[in-house]
Amino acid sequence: MTVALPPTAHRPALRHRLAERGVDRTLLLVLPGALAVVALFCYPFLYGLQLSFQPTSGATQGGFSFGAYHAFFSEPFARKSIWQTFSLAVPASLINVGVSVPISYRMRRDFRGKRLLLALLVVPITLGTVLTAEGILEFYGPAGWFNHTLNLLGLASSPVQLTMNYTGVLLSLIISGFPFAYLLTHSYLSGIHPSLEKAASTLGADWWQRFRHITFPLLLPGLMTTFCLSFVMAFAVFPSAMMVGDPDGKTHVISIEAYEAALEHFDYAQGCADAMIMTVLMLVVIVAVTTLRSRLYSGSTGGKG
Amino acid sequence: MSVVLDRPATAAPGAESGARRRRIAIRPGAWLTWGALAFFFLNLLGVIGTVLLNSFGRSWFRSWLPGGWTTHWYSDAWTEFSLGQVLGTTVEVTFLVVLISLVLAVPASYALARRAFPGRKLLLGLFVLPILVPPIAYGIPLATVLYKFHLAGSVTGVVLANLVPSIPFVVFTMTPFIEQIDPRIEAAARMCGAGTRTVLTRILVPLLLPGMLAAGILVLVRTFGMFELTFLTSGPTSQTLIVTLFSAVNSAGIRSTQSIDAMAVIYTGTMAVLLLIALRFVNPTQLVARSSD
């Protein structure tokens, strides 16, 4: 009796139990999208990972080898690309986030033309790095308007070299990265309810105290996310490092190293290894910032202000 | 807020804005922030303006403005870079990416918005990764795989590569949008005897259309400007405009910068039109992140 009962009672019960936890046929809708991401992102990534551990053509032992990674770290030129990437990405994202904070703090309330200003800030994001780089080459170039103006103001007697070097790439990272950081900071800041600051000011806090003790702590988690996203963008700098930088010298960043290995030397194993190194480095930074972030306040910020 | 300090909190809105305008005049901090923004926009204007002027200039060396004006660089660029074909490919790729990513991702976001199931976080993680990892880092393995399957270099390969960031992007734009649609509307429709088909065509699609339009336009803008993935996977016949632009700049010396700039202006113009359309439907902050409101 007791043994015979479960099969009849079990079948609907399982379906219902699953449905109670949210598992029903609706979930099948996830499949096409998820499968596409698995097939187009996860599979190539794992394939690349596997490929990067394959022995290089010179070695004969089959199966598994750190050859490509060893090659990357033993060659000073390749190894230095890590340092060069960081020395571009960290200052660029710090500048972008750092400048965004005071500007968005000042502009957090509505004023006439704010929507237009926000719309204008979107322009550099959509211009894309290639067009920005092309513009930078001509605007900041030795014969460009920028040097003309400097000359006119008497700030420089001979043209300042701003392109084809580190500065050019940094400029391009700021021009395309600052609006991005600003818009994100702005949306985080507008999520902090103004009444919190008002309450502080009724208690006699001046603007610096209000910013330091009320707004900034509430904004900090958002700032860290902004920093992460800016860093990811700057870390993967590729077209501008090629166009306005010095790709064989000071701005030989890791993405150029990976690209050259894979699509110029057709050494896919090396290219994939470089891409994996790049991903790991980036994930390390993200995990570090996220860990820091998780130690901060993460509750309500009073909703949209 | 500082207004409270400056004047009574009961001030009328008009008076408040008057106070704000006065404060801008006296506060050095305000000047500094406005100055920084103005400097940024001045540089931006210079960057875009130089390209624009150069594309119309006859020759431009060490003066403020080009020596004369002409439009022949545009016809030059059109023939030299076979822009007709490039633009055709660009439109083809972008629309295919928008269409396919919407078809694949909207159902997924519906399920993610409506159900709390075990493994939901894991699935969200799966969708976050392609946004987080830089395109170059996954583009190289992806290009390797596409070469293995002989898809690289074709329009199919470019579309497949561009789907990788687009699908998660649609998922993350659509999920909050669907979350704010009341599920009781669907329940009510079912109670009135509507089948799944009717619920889908009469209730869900009309409600989802604005969100799909916004997500579609955002994907359109992003795909149009996506350089890295297209660059890594395209061949001579499947280049989009931005890749052609990059190749032209990087192999410069043979080509006149003016016709490259003409192409850049065509690119910017198209982008500006797309952007104006996009801004009619979406908030600027949505272009960089999922909207917080």
TrEMBL record, chain A:
Superkingdom in the source lineage: Bacteria
Membrane topology: Multi-pass membrane protein
Chain ranges of the ABC transmembrane type-1 domain: 82-289
Keyword Transmembrane: yes
PROSITE patterns (UniProt xref): ABC_TM1 (PS50928)
Subcellular location: Cell membrane
Membrane-spanning residues: 27-46, 82-105, 117-143, 163-184, 218-238, 275-292
InterPro entries: MetI-like (IPR000515), MetI-like_sf (IPR035906)
Protein name: ABC transporter permease
Organism the protein comes from: Streptacidiphilus cavernicola
From TrEMBL, chain B:
InterPro entries to which the protein is assigned, alphabetical: MetI-like (IPR000515), MetI-like_sf (IPR035906)
Originating species: Streptacidiphilus cavernicola
Domain (ABC transmembrane type-1) ranges: 87-278
Domain of life: Bacteria
Keywords of the record: Cell inner membrane, Cell membrane, Membrane, Transmembrane, Transmembrane helix, Transport
Protein name: ABC transporter permease
Similarity comment text for this entry: Belongs to the binding-protein-dependent transport system permease family.
PANTHER family given in the database record: INNER MEMBRANE ABC TRANSPORTER PERMEASE PROTEIN YDCV (PTHR43357:SF4)
Cited SUPFAM superfamilies: MetI-like (SSF161098)
Membrane-spanning residues: 30-53, 93-113, 122-147, 159-178, 199-221, 264-282
Localization per record: Cell inner membrane; Cell membrane
Membrane topology: Multi-pass membrane protein
